[in-house]
Amino acid sequence: MPPKKDKEVKEKPIKGDQAEEMVLQYLRSVNRPYASTDVSTNLKNKVTKPEAQKALIALAEKGQLTMKLYGKQSIFVYNQSQLPVLDPEEFSQLDAETKEVQGTLDERRKELKTVSAELASMEALPKTKELGREINRVDAEVGTRREIRKLTHQNTMTLAALAPFRGDGEAKADPMSAADRDVIDKGWIRWRKEWTDRKKLYKSIMGILGDAGMVANQAEFEDEQGVEVDDDEAQEVDRGEFGAGAVIRKVAAPRAPSAKGAAPAPKAKPAPAPAKKVLGKRTRSESASQDKSGESAERDSDDDDE
């Protein structure tokens, strides 16, 4: 069995003069009107209700309390004439202290309002466990905004390009004819072929010179000979939509109408390709003999001139 709890020792209620003194001290300290029931309750029942009623009536008869009847209930308050009266200087000092305390109270209220607002804003922020989801949401919004700006820019550029053809307040531009487009396509095909052929030829020549040992460093050789290679713009064009990977619309050349019964024109034979000169490695004796023959030829030409 659990041990029995010790019975709480109840305090004996106060009676007589002690009860009157306790009630008087209480009403003077609070300086508020109370009934006997309220006084007994506020004193934690140290003075019972009947004893509190007797003490209040006795103190009222002595002139230390003032009694007022409200219906059947009696209300008691400390006699205000027995309270100390402050002189004007004390009133002024008390008024100044009150204003100072009121100013401090206003400042504290402002600080409390500011701190409360900061606390509310911090509580509104996402929690640590929610940061990952919040970051993903912000990234999605940023990506959407970038895509919108990109599409808006493309739309603006497209509208600006189409404005001359729509004739919005300006002279309407005539669209390019098929013949003009054919001329441009033919010119582009021709000159791009010339460009690629020359690049291949130059690459082949540099390979032959390199194999023969005549060019050790291609970059230095090109710099000495003043060879200009393709700049960044040309390389960008070659890599772009008009370069090697482009699908160019080939335009067939129009055929002249042939008369009925006329014999077809004979096909021209292709011209024979020029013989390629192969540069091999020269020995020292061959180089020396060629140099001597060149010098003798120069001397003969000088004698003829004289």
Automatic annotation (TrEMBL):
Compositional bias ranges of the Low complexity kind: 253-266
Keywords in alphabetical order: DNA recombination, Meiosis, Nucleus
Keyword RNA-binding assigned: no
Biased composition (Acidic residues): 222-235
A Pfam family assignment: WHD_TBPIP
Molecular functions per Gene Ontology: double-stranded DNA binding; recombinase activator activity
Superkingdom assignment: Eukaryota
InterPro entries, per database record: Hop2_WH_dom, WH-like_DNA-bd_sf
Region entry Disordered, spans: 222-306
One term under GO cellular component: DNA recombinase auxiliary factor complex
GO biological process assignments: homologous chromosome pairing at meiosis; meiotic joint molecule formation; meiotic strand invasion involved in reciprocal meiotic recombination
Subcellular location as annotated: Nucleus
Residues in Homologous-pairing protein 2 winged helix domain copies: 19-79
Family to which this protein belongs: Belongs to the HOP2 family.
Name under which the protein is recorded: Homologous-pairing protein 2
